[in-house]
């Protein structure tokens, strides 16, 4: 049984054989579906220059989903501070929070959102990667602008995305809640949490440590179907292992014939063992285990599968199993 709220991270996969406009159309349908299923929040990730993931600004996706729903929380997971002027992010998310009170989250991350160096430089108008000091200054400036400059009324809830102890230390010092990228760097999760909780300083934003753990989660009626659904993302990950970032998101049928090397299969199996993939019973058991082991206040599931219906079905199966296994 999972006794913490469950949310979703949407990465806006552009499926092979489709166009980005179709992915955009699906985002509103996805948000409405998860609201009906009772999920707590949806966050949207910032990505650039990838054939597998749409370069759709989170702030636009949030506004679109907010107009299509009525209660579910919506936010960024995350907007990447080095790519934006702090005051611009404060204005954008302050406006969203004023339009949709008590529903908007501002999740802030550090990475460039792309593996392509030229694209990263374009995003930063020719500048190189942000230093630790620059990133820390940007985060502090965003928070300051939210309070002192925007002041439209209800504020968005700020979060810091973390996959390293440096991010955990910054979140702890600023008194921010954190979202831990277990779906990206699972080997770092427990070290990040230990550093964060040990160093946390209460603030106006957060009185105590608050943790969301993000988990790659693929659920289907059978283990075989879940593995089949996981195939397309496995192809993308295998490409990244080789340093190839421009890998399209294939169909499950195409992924099933992909010639993985023995080393890739071993790496993918090791990664999947730390996530949650399988039948509803197995997935909910694994998620409950992660919630207990990490002490998470909330779990955020990311489900990078081909086909909107299959993605919604995965979330629906998890919710249904949670409901049927609730204690009387």
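^ structure tokens above, recovered residues below v
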């Amino acid at each position: 049984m999972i006794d913490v709220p469950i949310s979703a991270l949407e990465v806006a996969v552009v499926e092979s054989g489709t166009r980005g406009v179709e992915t955009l159309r699906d985002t509103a349908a996805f948000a409405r579906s998860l609201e009906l299923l009772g999920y707590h929040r949806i966050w949207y990730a910032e990505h650039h220059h990838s054939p597998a993931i749409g370069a759709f600004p989170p702030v636009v996706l949030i506004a679109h989903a907010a107009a299509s729903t009525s209660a579910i929380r919506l936010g960024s997971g995350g907007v990447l501070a080095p790519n934006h002027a702090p005051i611009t992010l404060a204005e954008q998310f302050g406006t969203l929070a004023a339009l949709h009170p008590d529903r908007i989250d501002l999740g802030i991350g550090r990475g460039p959102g792309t593996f392509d160096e030229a694209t990263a430089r374009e995003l930063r108008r020719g500048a190189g990667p942000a230093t630790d000091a620059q990133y820390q200054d940007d985060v502090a400036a965003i928070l300051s602008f939210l309070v002192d400059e925007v002041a439209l009324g209800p504020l968005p809830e700020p979060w810091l995305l973390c996959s390293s102890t440096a991010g955990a230390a910054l979140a702890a010092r600023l008194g921010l809640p954190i979202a831990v990228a277990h779906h990206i760097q699972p080997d770092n999760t427990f070290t990040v949490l230990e550093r964060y909780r040990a160093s946390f300083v209460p603030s106006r934003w957060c009185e105590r440590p608050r943790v969301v753990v993000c988990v790659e989660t693929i659920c289907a009626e059978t283990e075989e179907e879940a593995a089949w659904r996981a195939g397309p993302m496995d192809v993308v990950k295998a490409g990244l292992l080789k340093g190839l970032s421009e890998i399209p998101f294939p169909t499950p049928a195409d992924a099933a014939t992909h010639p993985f090397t023995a080393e890739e299969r071993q790496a993918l199996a090791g990664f999947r063992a730390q996530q949650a993939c399988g039948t509803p019973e197995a997935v909910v058991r694994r998620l409950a285990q992660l919630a207990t082991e990490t002490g998470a206040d909330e779990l955020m599931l990311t489900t990078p599968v081909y086909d909107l219906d299959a993605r919604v079905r995965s979330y629906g199966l998890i919710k249904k199993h949670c409901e049927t296994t609730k204690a009387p």
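Residues 115 and 245 are 6 Å apart (CA to CA).
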